[in-house]
Amino acid sequence: MKIWVRNRGLLLANLGLFLVFFAGMAVSGWSVYNSNQSEHGQPEVSFGSYLRTGEFGEATFENWESEFLQMGSYVLLTAYLVQRGSSESKKLDDAPQDEDPRLHPGDPDAPWPVHRGGWVLRLYENSLALAFAVLFLASWLGHAITGAKAYSDEELQHGGSPVTTWEYLGTSQFWFESMQNWQSEFLAVASIVGLSVYLRQRGSAESKPVAAPHAETGA
Fold first, then answer.
1. Contact criterion met (CB below 8 Å) for 174 and 149
2. Mean pLDDT calculated for residue range 144-158
3. Where do the H-state alpha helices sit in 8-52?
């Protein structure tokens, strides 16, 4: 068991931190929501009821949306673009990042799509970016649906009219919520790409070796 955990420590640590902060977001968001309810003369809600509100769904999905956009874009951009000296970049020469998987149909340790070939392999060799695209679109849709509900609830509290999801997509509110997260994600990616040229973190897979020259590209 100890070896199993050690071999999956990076994933388990991140999932654990996600659960801790997600729970913290939910509890603190519930408190803020009930404070706003009291200020508007509305009854407070239970924790379970808060988790079904548009406010909670919107706060969740608009953040997930930006994270999946960041990671999906990063996967694609690093497949085609390079940055001299960055640990986050492929080498500058013309050699491919990995060999054509079609040269290894008989490799017993290769994933089954490599053995299968054809359209299955074509799909598999782009599956990471496609997975992030699906996760982004699902989160984007969740943001639109729950955001429309939250927007409508606020409109009704102020004597306005509710909106449909499609109508909400045409509001500046929706795009402000999206863009404020998207811009920060690309700033974070640009930061790691640029800073890793000159700065180091010993032992990290995201850093070049401490003694590596600045011009060395790749980890």
1. no
2. 91
3. 9-39, 47-50
**DSSP states of 50-112:** HTTSHHHHHHHHHHHHHHHHHHHHHHHHHHH---TT-TTS--SSSS-SS--GGG-TT-TTS-H
The pair phi, psi for residue 216, each rounded to 5°, is -70, 130
Give the C-alpha distances (Å, rounded to integers) separating 70 from 56, 65, 67, 205: 22, 9, 5, 19
Burial of 3-37, coded b for 16+ CB within 10 Å and e otherwise, reads eeeeeeeeeeeeeeeeeeeeeeebeebbeebbeee
Spatial separation of the C-alpha atoms in residues 211 and 101, rounded to whole Å? 34
Contacts of 8 (CB under 8 A, 6+ apart): none
CB 216 within 8 A of CB 85: yes
Global pTM exceeds 0.70: yes
Distance, in Å, from the CA atom of 165 to the CA atom of 147, rounded to the nearest integer, reads: 8
**Chain segment 16-45, per-residue pLDDT in tens:** 999 999 999 999 999 999 998 898 888 999
Q: How far apart are CA 219 and CA 206, in angstroms?
A: 7
Report d(CA 122, CA 111) in Å as an integer. Answer: 13
Distances (CA, A) of 69 to 16, 187, 198: 22, 13, 27
Max CA-CA distance within the chain?
70
Residue position matching structure tokens 């449909």: 164
